[in-house]
Amino acid sequence: xxxxxxxxxxxxxxxxxxxxxxxxxxxxxxxxxxxxxxxxxxxxxxxxxxxxxxxxxxxxxxxxxxxxxxxxxxxxxxxxxxxxxxxxxxxxxxxxxxxxxxxxxxxxxxxxxxxxxxxxxxxxxxxxxxxxxxxxxxxxxxxxxx
Length: 146
Hints:
By secondary structure, the protein is mainly β. 7% of the residues lie in helices and 45% in strands. The chain has one helix and ten strands. The chain is globular, with a radius of gyration of 16 Å.
């Protein structure tokens, strides 16, 4: 289950949306609909949604993503990044399905929870657009229902 109160975002306005993609060198290795989502609101709050370590549930946080390879790297980490790649955050505000959400108010937000109590995703109602974010096979996937 999420450790944050999703209700705190209700009434706030989506300022921008970032996504994470896996890059090896200059090549994007993750699929177009894979990777964590970070929503920044006009209040300065952040909602980070990502696939949890078990690969089937979602982890939700109220802080921006922190690049584990940010800053100066050891030689070992430089070699790892060069050969194996890394997650990179990019602005996805002008891309589907997020472009329709920017500048709009959050009407409601709810976890997608199974009978087991596991949180498999989150649904965000942004001025009538329903953004579903859910974990499947170790990746966070996103669908927009308008």
